[in-house]
Design a protein that fits this description.
heterodimer, A: 108 residues, mainly alpha, two-stranded parallel ribbon, 2 strands, 7% strand, globular, B: 516 residues, alpha/beta, Peroxisomal Thiolase, Chain A, domain 1, 6-stranded mixed β-sheet, 4-stranded mixed β-sheet, 13 strands, 16% strand
């Protein structure tokens, strides 16, 4: 996750309380999604950004995970996401995401 | 409709600059600031390739036209451990230049006496450049001015804010700052801009060689790299285009710079094709040099995985666009896709705006395009860095859109990718892989009748500049020449064809007379 986004996530979590923030990712594959999820839960694994050593433990999901998909209006989802859903390895992403959540998420 | 602008040729060049990876790539320079004792920095020098290894690297051979994307796709992945035997530095489209020659070219392209080379190093480079077919004697003679020894150069770096230039880890030169206060003319910025200019110049020189165009016939040059040149009062004042045209000897050209991050080349080509189609200019060149900042950009992942640093090349390309000649591939300036302000950032909307909206306007389907050339990044570089196979991801999105539109069967996605896609080979220098690497190979295929239609797609991450959250993109279709344009006005008037037509008519007339 780039440094500017790390800073924004950190500020939003501080302003609103980490228990009130859920991060939704759109990463194109499992490893990248997992790294971004790790960054907003356990801290920046590259130790380069504002979230280095900061364990926010935020709720974090990928837009293609059923928990989020079910919350979205079906027409909007079809218009905005369905094409990418066809392209992505959703199972891989979902398993990566749930593994990170189980390990590091503090607000399930 | 006829008289579309045509692509008369394209050149592609690389300069293999391992020392610049260490000293100028931002991944490395950032690490030096935040974590100077890091394992990565210690380990990195062991992962740099030799010049010969970089020449034998198959994706580089594809870039300069000695191999095709199809041939690369047939090689088992990964590619970095499968060198091409008897690989040549010179290719159909350009050349792979070693670092020392490139430092010489840097000085040739510097008209403000900012580049200083150590005298013995310079003499060695001169000897090598004399054998370089596109570098003239006058250019080589510019290096005569180097009288400084290594002590003087060391002093320039240590005491006068100059940027060091290394070759094989030895200090061999420096780029001086162009102003003592102005950050936009600092030695760092001057080096970046001179590298961009020099790599663009090298591609222009090769464009002249591969197309045989008379340099005096070029009317206009558009540069589409991602650098900015100017001073503190006009940071992006610009005109890399004219600066490079000057060195390349395009005496009758002026030019301008077009920017749009990685989408720059697509915008520039559209402008060039439109200028030619409108008759404003007959011959326009689109050109871009590479950038030092992105050298070794994914180096951390490559080193971690025990791979060589594959981002060790400063790339450049140039494309010659001119009036319809009835032969070369035509740029369909009436089938143009664009990502508009209102398009939004959902991938679905992005791909529709770039691929299908323009096709819909002329009643074409996705499957009517033989080949798509989107972001042609080399997956050997991006996959180990977690960014996946970028071209393949693009083809998948195009195919998925085709499925949604009912033009492709869902089960046919992989076949579509195989048939209409390409294996990526281009260096990851932003604008360099953006659609344009295919133009050289595409022209060959269209002239041979193997490919009839192609779509070139450029996409740009505008949000990186923090002026907008928007993304950008532009696309256009290229087709094998429809032979309808060679009869219109002076645009592409083909004298020999007309002569042969007249000859045929005369022969028929004479035969008619004899039969009477």
């Amino acid at each position: 996750m780039d440094l500017e986004n790390q800073k924004r996530v950190k500020e939003i979590a501080e302003e609103n309380g980490p228990e009130n923030v859920v991060v939704i990712l759109g990463a194109a594959e499992g490893e990248a999604a997992g790294l971004a999820a790790e960054t907003v839960t356990a801290g920046d694994p590259t130790y380069a950004g504002p979230l280095a050593g900061v364990q926010l433990g935020l709720g974090v999901y990928h837009i293609c995970e059923s928990e989020i998909k079910d919350e979205v209006d079906a027409d909007v989802y079809d218009e905005q996401i369905s094409m990418m859903e066809m392209v992505l390895d959703v199972d891989d992403i979902a398993s990566e995401m749930s593994s990170i959540r189980e390990q590091f998420c503090k607000y399930m | 409709m006829s008289g579309y602008a045509v692509i008369k040729g394209a050149s592609y060049t690389l300069a293999i600059t391992p020392d610049m990876v260490l000293h100028n790539g931002t991944t490395q320079t950032t690490e030096m600031v935040v974590n100077p004792d890091s394992e990565y920095l210690k380990e990195l020098p062991n992962h740099l390739r030799s010049y010969e290894e970089a020449v034998a690297y198959m994706p580089n051979q594809v870039f300069i036209g000695n191999r095709t994307s199809e041939e690369l796709g047939a090689v088992e992945f990964p590619w970095y451990d499968k060198p091409v035997e008897n690989a040549q530095r010179e290719g159909r489209f350009g050349d792979i230049m070693p670092q020392d020659e490139f430092l010489g070219l840097l000085q040739i392209c510097d008209v403000f006496d900012l580049v200083v080379l150590e005298k013995e190093f310079a003499a060695g480079v001169q000897a090598k450049l004399r054998n370089n077919k596109v570098i003239s004697d006058e250019m080589v003679a510019i290096l005569d001015k180097n009288k400084d020894d290594s002590e003087t150069i060391k002093k320039l770096v240590e005491e006068e804010h100059s940027e060091p230039l290394y070759n094989n880890n030895v200090l061999v030169g420096a780029v001086k700052r162009a102003h003592d206060v102005d950050v936009n003319l600092s030695a760092h910025v001057m080096l970046e801009n001179l590298v961009s200019k020099a790599s663009s110049v090298y591609s222009l020189l090769h464009l002249i060689k591969v197309t045989g165009v008379n340099p005096a016939e070029v009317d206009y040059v558009i540069d589409c790299c991602e650098e900015a040149c100017g001073d503190m009062n006009q940071r992006g004042g610009g005109n890399f285009a004219k600066a490079a045209a000057e060195v390349a000897g395009l005496v009758n050209a002026t030019g301008s710079d077009t920017r749009g991050f990685c989408a720059g080349p697509a915008h520039a080509l559209l402008s060039a094709a439109s200028l030619v189609k409108a008759g404003t200019f007959k011959t326009v060149v689109v050109t871009a040099g590479g950038c030092t900042a992105k050298l070794g950009m994914n180096g951390k992942d490559h080193v971690k995985k025990g791979m060589p640093i594959l981002e060790d090349a400063v790339a450049g390309f140039s494309v010659l666009i001119s009036a319809d000649d009835g032969v070369n591939p035509q740029i369909r300036t009436d089938i143009v896709g664009r990502h508009t302000v209102g398009t939004g950032s959902a991938p679905q909307n992005v791909i529709s705006s770039l691929v299908t909206e323009s096709l819909d306007r002329v009643g074409m389907k996705i499957t009517d395009i033989d080949k798509f050339s989107p972001e042609m990044q080399n997956p050997d570089i991006t996959k180990p860095a977690g960014a996946g196979d970028v071209p393949e991801a693009n083809f998948k999105m195009i195919a998925a859109l085709g499925v949604k539109r009912g033009e492709i069967e869902r089960a046919g996605i992989n076949d579509f990718i195989k048939k209409h896609g390409l294996t990526g080979w281009a260096p990851t220098q932003g604008h360099i892989p953006s659609g344009v690497p295919y133009l050289g190979q595409m022209r060959d295929e269209m002239l041979a009748g193997k490919t009839n239609t192609a779509m070139i797609i450029g996409k740009g991450s505008l949000f990186l500049g923090r002026m907008t959250n928007l993304f950008d993109g532009a696309s256009f279709v290229v087709q094998a020449n429809d032979k309808k344009g060679a009869n219109g006005e002076d645009a592409g008037f083909d004298e020999s064809k007309v002569k042969s037509m007249i000859g045929e008519a005369m022969r028929a007339f004479a035969e008619g007379l004899l039969n009477q």
